[in-house]
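Suppose you are handed only these lines of text.
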Amino acid sequence: MKAVWYESQGPADEVLVLGDMPAPEPGPGEVAVAIHASGVHPSDVKTRRGYRGPMTLPRQIPHSDGAGVIKAVGEGVDKARVGERVWVHSAAYKRAGGTAAEICVLPGEFAHHLPDAISFAAGAALGIPAMTAHRALFCAVGIGNGGVADKTVLVTGGAGAVGHSAIQLARWAGARAVIATVSSPEKAEAAIEAGADHVIDYTRQDVIEAIRGATKNKGVDHIVEVEFGGNLPVSLEVLKPHGVLASYGSEKKPRPALDFYPLMFRNVRLQTIFMYELTADQRRNAVADITHAIEAGSFTPLIDSSFALEDTAAAHARVESGRRTGTVVVTPSGQ
Ligand SMILES: NC(=O)c1ccc[n+]([C@@H]2O[C@H](COP(=O)([O-])OP(=O)(O)OC[C@H]3O[C@@H](n4cnc5c(N)ncnc54)[C@H](OP(=O)(O)O)[C@@H]3O)[C@@H](O)[C@H]2O)c1
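From them, the structure of the protein bound to NAP can be written out as follows.
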């Protein structure tokens, strides 16, 4: 099969290699998926760069997310799954065989039915973006009235792959209002199209004032945060008592100073999210809700661009450019 891989970490155009290798066979509990679309996310790019630590395997086929059709199943997996359209996640997390290949073998529990309503490209944007967004929104379920129904939700980076998913899932879950922050008119359009009621350009507006205006000075109940450290001063001002601050990134300010008492006096709940290490229950809940939202016509992942497998280095460059709006996809089967 054709695949892209790397054997050392570094810049994409120096380390990514396109070549042929024997197609892998599914072992017990595994499925072999013919990959039609492979999602390229910041995590894949950071791992290839070495930002997540040195390689632990001699050769890595990158990309954890993807979508395609099950071609073969291993022992213990229902044979009726052969021919099933699926979306997959976690293929390259602590595993050598990611989705930047014609065939990807992974545990059957990481391959989920892809509703007919959405394309393979959209399926390749469900794993990391949608499951992270889901966890950020539903992390307090089971704790008091923990969902986001009737809540006011702030989604920072609302045109990002995760943020755009979070806006749609918050809407689907019955949020009273969704406020999103963005950095340009184009990104504002994407956030509005996802269902945001209020969009704030954080490069041009006073975010605290704008949120106060949008909420009649009440503030927000729940924050889905892309930049924990950088936006903490805003979160401290706008989060209501008993509010939830669910963060999945803090790239610009990874070691922020935390002003404890303003959070404590308001019983704020801080939740970090690392999608790859969700529990099996959390994953199952996310998959079920995302599937319902897709089938209800309430969830459509945002796709930025599509590249041939031969152009995987250009796809990585697009992710690294910071200019994308949505998920970048590579198409191993040429579709
Ligand atoms: N913990 C996890 O499990 C997990 C899962 C998924 C992603 N992540 C991480 O989360 C980050 C975003 O991922 P993504 O795939 O959504 O990337 P993305 O599609 O590039 O989106 C990030 C968005 O955040 C915006 N942004 C950046 N800084 C911001 C700030 N201070 N305030 C408001 N918006 C801001 C960006 O827009 P501007 O740059 O134009 O502002 C962009 O629209 C990456 O660092 C990724 O590695 C973590």
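What can we learn from it? The chain has two domains: 2-125+301-331, 129-276. The two ends are 16 Å apart (CA to CA).
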